[in-house]
Amino acid sequence: IAPYEGWDNGMLTCFRFTGNGPRPVLYQVLPDGTETLADAHNEQNVVVVHGVSRLFRFRLNGLVVEARPTAQVNTGYNFNGTTTGEIRELKHAEQ
User: Fold this and answer.
1) What are the protein's UniProt keywords (predicted)?
2) Burial class of residue 10 in the structure, from the number of CB atoms within 10 Å of its CB (0-12 exposed, 13-18 middle, 19+ buried)
């Protein structure tokens, strides 16, 4: 039931699953430990969660898997659009 890949951009969190298995129900774990159903949609084999969280929980029948980011959860939107912090700037010479 576990995704084999996960990432976020500071606003959305994505989890990639194999294409042929049953999909678990995805919950966002709140700071007090309670669960809330994650607001998400599917794009092929990727579940796109509309938000980021310190902990997600996947449930399928009696099975439970947790996923947490390895990096610090951003407190705001990543305006430079990069996960590495590197930015390439293109400058044109004045004519």
Assistant:
1) Signal
2) middle
